Amino acid sequence: MYVDLSDIIMALLLHILKSFTMAKNKIVYECSECGEKHPKWQGKCASCGSWNCLIETIFEDYPAKNNRFDGLTQTSQVVSLSHVEAQDILRKNTGISELDRVLGGGIAIGSVILIGGDPGIGKSTLLLQTMDQLSKANKVLYVTGEESIQQVALRANRLGVHSNDNLRLMAEIGLSQIIKAIDKESPQIVVIDSIQTTYTELLQSAPGSVAQVRECASILTRIAKQKHITIIMVGHVTKDGSIAGPRVLEHIVDAVLYFEGEQHSNFRMLRGVKNRFGAVNELGIFAMTDKGLREVNNPSALFLSSHRSKTPGSCILITQEGTRPLLVEVQALVDQSHIMPPKRLAVGMDGYRLSMLIAIMQRHIDLKLFDQDIFLNVVGGVRVTEPAVDLAVTLAIISSYKNKALPEKLAVCGEIGLSGEIRTIQKGQDRIKEAVKLGFERIIVPKANLPKDKIPDVEIIAVQNLSEVINYCF
Fold this sequence. Notes:
By secondary structure, the protein is of the alpha/beta class. Helices cover 28% and strands 26% of the residues. Strand 11 and strand 12 form a beta hairpin. The longest helix has 20 residues, at 5-24.
């Protein structure tokens, strides 16, 4: 029997080649929230528990000799901490004081900043205004992946941004071309608008996928650290308001800023949720005009400009955003419910905390709210996350339920415990000073925050529990 060995050898070679190719590139399903990889599609991510978040992608097993970080790595030596000379971080003032406040005093040289927010809220507008100021003393490269250069020029004309040779524009989404432009132009500041449109040829997945976003952000971060340049990246957000892509993207960068505010309101809040070179939870407040974003120097007076005294269901809260005390109005509407269970809606604060406060009121002051619809709103689009909002929310709800207005020129702050006690809050003295400066004559604070010195023409009411507050106000 005659056997053709050449055919057998050829079949074996084809089988080996096919096996090698399949081992090199295989299809996996990657979670868009946490980045966890799954061998097959399923409705729920086994790692973070998110639903309908698995995206099909190609997993590429690169050989060690083709390491894509070869050009970015540097040899590092092990040294003792006592031999390292600590130096202050050099910063550049942006020319916009509200942005400098959020960043901790200016842009840190060599840092990577990620800015997120809803579409149309003003991210590109703020960056173009900021780059116009920085380009007066620095060379800036603005890379746009969503618009053409002509569209950026039209926005610049509308904002009154003057032509400057130091402000360089580039419409590109390929990371390799962006890196070449950085090497050629040698800018001090680079803007990537946005990171979701950028892609690298080293990966076969589409731009905006989890792998592409993570890979591009990692490479740009290494470039920023090696060349000591500042890179600012714009990030898209998901339905729940978080930056699209895995959470690892926020761990890579040095600072994460979020734009907040309603699109139908003129106010825009820029909040720092992470900052390796400054304090977190700092808040910068802007007003959107036809000429772009304008700084709000006295936000408390602006938020209270439409406040009317002797209005049931209204209470003035003294909140603290980072290092800035801020006065905002809390409004509540309590009405008889015609369906069960009754509605509970909170805008500007956590809805679960509202439910907890309702339970405290029913338990400790015998307020029957089980058949009442309760709607709560923090005026101005501000979102308050600190527990000092408890006392203002409680008084606003009771005022609306009793249809009785609170005393005039009254401001409050305080956290309520589950047993009805009023707990201590941070930076109570700064809050009191801000309320006095705006003309409030009655201020309710926890007893532990009572100032030692009396303030002329101002009544400071120190309380220990919720019953004392109710007796004073009603």
